[in-house]
C-alpha cells in the first residue's frame, strides 16, 4: 500500500512513469463514466417528474433505504375531487353548480387514479432498472477499476525498482571492470566493487521476478475490468427497452386523461344550455307578466336564447332586431364580414331548436353577433343554422 501511494504521488509530481492503457480500454472507461453520469441525471429528473414534491421524495427515499413499504399517498387530483364533492354537498347536489362540481370532481378522481397507475408503472418499469444499474453493476465496475488502479501502481513501482537496480548494477559493473591498483587501499575498493556488483545482480533478478508476477496480476485484472466495461452495451439495450415501456405508460396515461376530459367536456357542453336556460327561466318568472298575457308555450319556445337580450340594449347602435335574430337563429342573416370556417372537434347534440347539432370532423361556417354569449357562435351548414358551443370547434383562418 505504501509503495502504491508513493508511486501515485510521484506520478502526480511528474517524477515517475505511468503505464498507459490501450485506446480501446480508455474508450470503454469513458463510455462507462458517461453512462453512469447520464443515468444518474435521468433517474433524478424522472423522480422529480413523477413526484414534484421534494419532501415526499425524501420520505420515499428513506422508506426505501429502511426497506419499508412506502405509505399510500393521495394524489392532487384525488384531493381536489374530495374537496369538490364536499363543496357540492354543502351547496346542494341538486343545484346546477353542485351538479357540475360533482361531475368535475368525479373526473378529477379518475385523473388522480390514472396518475397513480402511471407513477407505479413508471417506477417499476423504468426507475427500478436504472437504480439497479447504479447500485449494482456500476458499484461492481467501480470496485474492479479501483483494484486495477492499484495493480497498475504496483506494476509501475516494480518497473521503477527494476530500472534502479539495473542502473546500480551497471555502475557497479563499470567500477568492477577497472584495472586494480595494489598500492594503498585500492585492492580493498576493488573487492568491494565486485561484491556490490554481485549484490545488485541478485537485486535485479529479484526485481524481474516481482515484475513478472505483478504484470500477470495486472493483465488478469485488466481483462476482468474490460469484460465488465463491455457489458455497458447490454446495459444500454436493457435501458432502451425500459425507455420504450416508460413511453408506452406515459402515452396510455395521457390518452386516459384526454378521454376523461373529453367526456367531461361533452357532459358540461350538453348541460350548459340547460343550466343557463334554467337559471334564466327562474329569473324571468319573477318579472314576467301574468299568465293570461304571456302564454307559457311561447316562452318555452324562445327562452333558451334569451340570456343575450339584456345585453343588447346596452350596445350603442344595435337595433332590437338583432336580439330577435338571436332568439331565432334560422332568421339570422350572416354579417357581410367576420364569418369563418370551423372544424367540429366532436359530436354535439342540440339541446333545443335554437342550437345546431354537430358531427365530428365536419366543416361549418360560424360567426358572432353583438350581445351573444362569448362561449357560443352562430353556425351554418347548408340551409341549417343554429347556435354552437365554441369549445366544440377548431376555428380556422
From TrEMBL:
- Name the keywords, alphabetized: Apoptosis, Coiled coil, Cytoplasm, Golgi apparatus, Membrane, Mitochondrion, Mitochondrion outer membrane, SH3 domain
Membrane topology label: Peripheral membrane protein
Q: Which residues form the SH3 domain?
A: 337-397
Q: What are the subcellular locations of this protein?
A: Cytoplasm; Golgi apparatus membrane; Mitochondrion outer membrane
Write out the GO cellular component annotations.
Golgi membrane; mitochondrial outer membrane
Going by the entry's taxonomy, the superkingdom of the source organism is recorded as Eukaryota
InterPro entries, per the entry:
AH/BAR_dom_sf, BAR_dom, Endophilin_SH3RF, SH3-like_dom_sf, SH3_domain, SH3GLB_SH3
Question: Which residue range or ranges hold the BAR domain?
Answer: 10-277
Signal peptide start-end:
none
Any stretches that span the bilayer, and where are they?
none
BP GO annotations: apoptotic process; membrane organization
Q: Which CDD domains match?
A: BAR_Endophilin_B2, SH3_Endophilin_B1
What subunit structure does UniProt give? Answer: Homodimer, and heterodimer with SH3GLB1.
**Family statement drawn from the similarity comment of this UniProt entry:** Belongs to the endophilin family.
- PANTHER family linked to this entry: DREBRIN-LIKE PROTEIN-RELATED (PTHR14167:SF68), SH3 DOMAIN-CONTAINING (PTHR14167)
- The protein, known as: Endophilin-B1
The root-end lineage is: Eukaryota, Metazoa, Chordata, Craniata, Vertebrata
Amino acid at each position: 500500500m505504501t509503495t502504491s501511494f508513493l508511486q501515485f504521488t510521484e506520478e502526480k509530481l511528474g517524477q515517475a512513469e505511468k503505464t498507459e492503457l490501450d485506446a480501446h480500454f480508455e474508450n470503454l472507461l469513458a463510455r462507462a463514466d458517461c453512462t453512469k453520469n447520464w443515468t444518474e441525471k435521468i433517474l433524478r429528473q424522472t423522480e422529480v417528474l413523477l413526484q414534484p414534491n421534494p419532501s415526499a421524495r425524501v420520505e420515499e427515499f428513506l422508506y426505501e433505504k429502511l426497506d419499508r413499504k412506502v405509505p399510500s399517498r393521495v394524489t392532487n387530483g384525488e384531493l381536489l375531487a374530495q374537496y369538490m364533492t364536499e363543496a357540492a354537498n354543502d351547496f346542494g347536489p341538486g343545484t346546477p353548480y353542485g351538479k357540475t362540481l360533482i361531475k368535475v370532481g368525479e373526473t378529477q378522481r379518475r385523473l388522480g387514479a390514472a396518475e397513480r397507475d402511471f407513477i407505479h408503472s413508471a417506477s417499476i418499469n423504468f426507475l427500478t432498472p436504472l437504480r439497479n444499474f447504479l447500485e449494482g453493476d456500476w458499484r461492481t465496475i467501480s470496485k474492479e477499476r479501483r483494484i486495477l488502479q492499484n495493480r497498475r501502481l504496483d506494476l509501475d513501482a516494480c518497473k521503477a525498482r527494476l530500472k534502479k537496480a539495473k542502473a546500480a548494477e551497471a555502475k557497479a559493473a563499470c567500477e568492477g571492470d577497472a584495472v586494480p591498483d595494489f598500492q594503498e587501499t585500492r585492492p580493498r575498493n576493488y573487492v568491494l566493487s565486485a561484491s556490490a556488483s554481485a549484490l545488485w545482480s541478485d537485486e535485479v533478478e529479484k526485481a524481474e521476478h516481482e515484475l513478472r508476477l505483478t504484470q500477470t496480476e495486472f493483465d488478469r485484472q485488466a481483462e476482468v475490468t474490460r469484460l465488465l466495461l463491455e457489458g455497458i452495451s447490454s446495459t444500454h439495450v436493457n435501458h432502451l427497452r425500459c425507455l420504450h415501456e416508460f413511453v408506452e405508460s406515459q402515452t396510455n396515461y395521457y390518452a386516459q386523461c384526454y378521454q376523461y376530459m373529453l367526456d367531461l367536456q361533452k357532459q358540461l357542453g350538453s348541460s350548459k344550455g340547460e343550466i343557463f336556460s334554467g337559471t334564466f327561466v327562474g329569473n324571468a318568472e319573477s318579472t314576467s307578466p301574468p299568465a293570461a298575457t304571456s302564454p307559457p308555450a311561447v316562452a318555452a319556445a324562445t327562452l333558451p336564447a334569451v340570456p343575450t337580450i339584456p345585453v343588447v340594449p346596452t350596445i350603442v347602435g344595435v337595433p332590437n332586431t338583432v336580439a330577435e335574430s338571436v332568439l331565432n337563429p334560422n332568421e339570422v342573416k350572416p354579417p357581410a364580414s367576420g364569418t369563418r370556417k370551423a372544424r367540429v372537434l366532436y359530436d354535439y347534440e342540440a339541446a333545443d331548436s335554437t342550437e345546431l347539432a354537430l358531427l365530428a370532423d365536419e366543416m361549418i361556417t360560424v360567426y358572432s353577433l353583438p350581445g351573444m354569449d362569448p362561449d357560443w357562435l352562430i353556425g351554418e351548414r347548408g340551409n341549417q343554422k343554429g347556435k354552437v358551443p365554441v369549445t366544440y370547434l377548431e376555428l380556422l383562418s
